[in-house]
Amino acid sequence: MRSDYSGSGLHGSGFSDAELAARIAEGAGEILLGVRHGDLLSGRHLGDVGDTMAQAWIASVLARHRPADAVLSEEAADVGDRATAERVWIIDPLDGTRQFASGSDEWAVHVALTEGGKITHAAVSLPAKGRVFRSDTVETTTGPLSGRLATSRYASYEVSWVSRELKLNPIPIGSAGAKAMAVVTGEADAYVHAGGQYEWDNCAPVGVALAAGLHCSRLDGTPIVYNQPYPYMPDFVICRSELREDMLASLAEIW
Ligand SMILES: Nc1ncnc2c1ncn2[C@@H]1O[C@H](COP(=O)(O)O)[C@@H](OP(=O)(O)O)[C@H]1O
Ligand SMILES: [Mg+2]
């Protein structure tokens, strides 16, 4: 998952792509923790301020350190021309805005670099848990299966089906990043999503999960390709490689 940045000394950034992704995920997390400081803001207002401030900081950092790259973010118009750019950063400055605003720990910052539609570096921070996961340092997920399936609060038909067929106990977790990292840490064996999401919701989580040796694909088993003209990525599965065959066979019965 490495690629050497050959940007010709632009602004003299001394950070590799991997380091930059991790620092952005961690730094935006610190800003978001600051936004929640002291219970001075609450509810939707708190979520809006979090989205805005994390986005502004990330945009400034990327503009300074990687001015030639394009950026796709949940919270802003595209930077650069994604159709022609080889290098595109895909960012969710605050995934799990609702959980963030309600005081929960289940929210994340997603930072991924894609090149030709493939993820080359990714970082996901879970700031309220003090964790940063990076594709260049994450350990391979091993150990016994937990028998658990990470799900959204409202499970889709596909999720209920897989849970029943594979005998996985559904555990609701907020934020796509937090759910994916639960599979990376072994807390859950799989995260299955159907019914809609955008590339920023799952790109960095999938990048870290792939680097941890997990199976990641669309529900029909095909690879996930990023930086599409319309960045909708509505369904995918992240699971332990031991479950891959049973998972895809079970999904094939309904998908
Ligand atoms: N059906 C759907 N359509 C679009 N986005 C969805 C979605 N279901 C979940 N998401 C997005 O996926 C992220 C994780 O959601 P959840 O925790 O409910 O599974 C959230 O991102 P944001 O918080 O960045 O908006 C949420 O908006
Ligand atoms: Mg999101």
CATH architecture group name of the largest domain: 2-Layer Sandwich
Number of domains: 2
| Envelope shape | globular
Given this structure, which CATH class of the largest domain is correct?
Alpha Beta
- Give me the strand/helix succession: HHEEEHEEEEHEHEHEEH
Uncertain ranges = 1-12
Report the helical percentage: 25-40%
Helix-strand category: alpha/beta
Total number of strands:
11
Q: CATH homologous superfamily of the largest domain?
A: Fructose-1,6-Bisphosphatase, subunit A, domain 1
CATH topology descriptor of the largest domain: Fructose-1,6-Bisphosphatase, Chain A, domain 1
Share of residues in strands:
15-25%
Helical run tally: 7
**C-alpha end-to-end distance:** 31 Å
Q: Quote the average pLDDT.
A: 95
Global Rg: 18 Å
Strand arrangement in the largest pleated sheet = 2-1-3-4-5-6
For the sheet with most strands, the description reads: 6 strands, mixed
Distinct small-molecule ligands in the complex: adenosine-3'-5'-diphosphate, magnesium ion
Observed structural traits:
single chain; about 260 residues; alpha/beta; 6-stranded mixed β-sheet; 7 helices; globular; disordered N terminus; binds adenosine-3'-5'-diphosphate; 3'(2'),5-bisphosphonucleoside 3'(2')-phosphohydrolase; Inositol_monophosphatase-like; CysQ/Inositol_MonoPase
Descriptive notes:
The chain has 255 residues and is of the alpha/beta class. The protein folds into two domains: 10-134, Fructose-1,6-Bisphosphatase, Chain A, domain 1; 148-252, 3-Layer(aba) Sandwich (D-Maltodextrin-Binding Protein, domain 2). 34% of the residues lie in helices and 22% in strands. It is built from seven helices and eleven strands. It has helices at 17-35, 43-65, 97-101, 157-165, 176-184, 199-211, 244-252, and strands spanning 70-73, 76-79, 87-95, 108-115, 118-126, 131-134, 148-151, 169-172, 190-193, 215-217, 236-239. The strands form two sheets. A six-stranded mixed β-sheet has the order 2-1-3-4-5-6, sandwiched between helices. Helix 1 (17-35) runs antiparallel to helix 2 and helix 5 packs parallel to helix 6 (199-211). The longest helix has 23 residues, at 43-65. The protein binds adenosine-3'-5'-diphosphate and magnesium ion. Adenosine-3'-5'-diphosphate is lined by residues 74, 92, 95-97, 152-153, 174-176, 195-197, 201.
